[in-house]
Design a protein that fits this description.
Chain A: Part of the ABC transporter FtsEX involved in cellular division. Has ATPase activity. Chain A: One of its GO terms (molecular function) is transmembrane transporter activity. Chain A: Homodimer. Forms a membrane-associated complex with FtsX. The structure holds 2 protein chains of 2 kinds. Chain A is globular. By secondary structure, chain A is an alpha/beta fold. In chain A, strand 7 and strand 8 form a beta hairpin. In chain A, 42% of the residues are buried. Classes of the chains: A alpha/beta, B alpha+beta.
Chain lengths: 220, 291
């Protein structure tokens, strides 16, 4: 697929074709502006390609109508570099909010949220506010929120970008654990340490083209 | 739970920016009051037109030295005129009686006037009061006719004044409505900005569009409905204080405004207030909350 943003001199993604199997763990690496984030945005149906197709969970979403997008998003969890938590809500409330706004009852939240917070290792810290948590703990809340709805795919856009190496490793262990439950994990990163340690599939992008696609790859 | 969530968001939203909410509600209330008042006046003027034009008369006054022949000719012509519904002949004596009763408070004036000095006249009721002009043209040059007076011309003046008051009220309603709409748009922008984090998360996790937008739209609708309630209160107060109070002397002149009229106009005000606010909020969200 190809994506050219208006006013851009060259396409952000140029004739890129990637296929990710269910249950895979894939790193997208490459310098800033190489087009990694555009891939994430296309998977989220935030932007559409100019040419080519985007197929997610076996469904062609290239020309999906925008009113269908909310329902589509429920099958994808998202984690970002800046956590994107609600500052005036506790860890528990942040996760429960994600359930409640898609129509789940409070009873469901009461059952599911403590479970998933336990899973990400935040048992006992449910009622802390984001500013009372460390960066790593905040990212755990974000992962819990992305995973609480049991999505088929977890997208992580530089989830360790704001964290120190040790904390980053912990977050990666968490993502690995989630991947083992059968969830496909797609992660965009700059972090060579992590890529080298994990030894998973690596897709390297440069100037909108795939220059490497390697199972059990390393960064450099 | 979702309904409860949406409603609590609405209240929180109105409270978060309470000065703006009050400004929005007040302008809305004034606008809707004007709208309601001009609506009431529209009915009022219609009622009055029916009432007055039905009883309207055209008077043909005769010259002092009109001859018997001229009078009989005119009478015959009027009787055969298809425009004329009814003809009443008023002779000098009857005119004097009327004059006396009309000016009974001024005996000096009555004493100064002799029955002889008052003109005889024909009082015509027309089939259609608006055809006055053709009646006038037809009889103005008839021998023995001094003057033709049409009451409807006086009424037209009164109704012109009422209609222009009504138009002014309507214009004020529109101007205030524009102010109210801008305030609604502004309130929604502020609300969308202060809730941008929540909205971003909601979009991310796949909350439906209506669920994201409903609190904002309902916030505007609630303000519109409160505004229309205040407008209703204002109209009720106006009826109490003005029509039943200081203007009650004009009771016989103005047809009365009933509670029924006000109750009839209220749903119109509430509907306009609610729908217009909802539409404005929704359109504003198109720009400030791309979902």
């Amino acid at each position: 697929m190809t994506k050219t943003y208006p006013k851009a001199s060259r396409p952000s993604l140029d004739n890129v074709s990637v296929s990710i199997e269910k249950g895979e763990f894939v790193f997208f690496i490459g310098p800033s502006g190489s087009g990694k984030s555009t891939i994430i945005k296309m998977l989220l149906h935030e932007v559409a390609p100019n040419k080519g197709r985007v197929v997610v969970n076996g469904k062609d979403v290239t020309s999906m109508r925008s009113w269908k997008r909310p329902h589509f998003r429920r099958s994808i969890g998202c984690v970002f570099q800046d956590f994107r938590l609600l500052p005036n809500r506790t860890a528990y409330e942040n996760v429960a909010f994600a359930l409640e706004v898609i129509g789940k009852t409070k009873a469901v939240a009461r059952r599911v949220v403590p479970e998933v917070l336990e899973l990400v290792g935040l048992g006992g810290k449910e009622h802390r506010y984001p500013h009372e948590l460390s960066g790593g703990e905040q990212q755990r809340v974000a992962v819990a929120r992305a995973f609480v709805n049991r999505p088929l795919i977890l997208l992580a856009d530089e989830p360790t970008g704001n964290l120190d190496p040790d904390t980053s490793i912990e977050i990666m262990r968490l993502l690995d654990r989630i991947n083992r439950t059968g969830t496909t994990v797609v992660m965009v990163t700059h972090d060579s340490n992590i890529v080298n340690q994990m030894r998973r599939r690596v897709v390297e992008i440069e100037s909108g083209r795939i220059v490497r696609d390697q199972a059990r790859g390393v960064y450099g | 739970m979702r309904v409860k969530y949406v409603l609590s968001e609405v209240l929180v939203g109105l409270w978060r920016n309470v000065t703006m909410s009050i400004a929005m509600i007040i302008t809305m209330a004034v606008s809707l009051t004007m709208l309601g008042a001009s609506g009431l006046m529209y009915r009022q003027v219609d009622d009055m037109k029916d009432l007055y034009y039905k009883n309207i008369q055209v008077s043909i006054f005769m010259e002092q030295e009109v001859t018997e022949q001229q009078r009989t000719d005119l009478q015959t012509k009027l009787d055969g005129d298809p425009l004329v519904k009814e003809v009443i002949y008023v002779d000098k004596a009857q005119a004097y009686e009327r004059f006396k009763s009309m000016y009974q408070d001024a005996p000096d004036l009555v004493n100064a006037v002799k029955p002889d000095q008052l003109p005889e006249s024909f009082r015509l009721t027309l089939n259609n009061p608006e055809q006055y002009k053709s009646v006038y043209d037809q009889y103005k040059d008839t021998e023995g006719v001094e003057e033709i007076v049409d009451q409807s011309r006086l009424l037209d003046k009164i109704f012109n004044i009422l209609t222009s008051i009504q138009n002014i009220a309507l214009a004020a309603a529109i101007v205030m409505a524009i102010a109210a709409l801008l305030l609604v748009a502004n309130t929604i922008q502020v609300a969308a900005y202060s809730k941008r984090r929540e909205v971003a998360v909601m979009k991310l996790v796949g909350a439906s569009n209506w669920f994201i937008q409903a609190p904002f739209v309902l916030e505007a609708v609630v303000a519109g409905l409160i505004g229309s309630l205040l407008g209703l209160v204002a109209l009720v107060a106006a009826k109490y204080l003005l029509f039943d109070g200081s203007l009650s002397a004009l009771q016989g002149l103005l047809s009365p405004i009933t509670w029924g009229d006000i109750l009839f106009i209220f749903p119109v005000m509430a509907g306009v207030g609610g729908l217009v606010s909802a539409a404005t909020a929704w359109i504003t969200l198109r720009f400030y909350l791309r979902v």
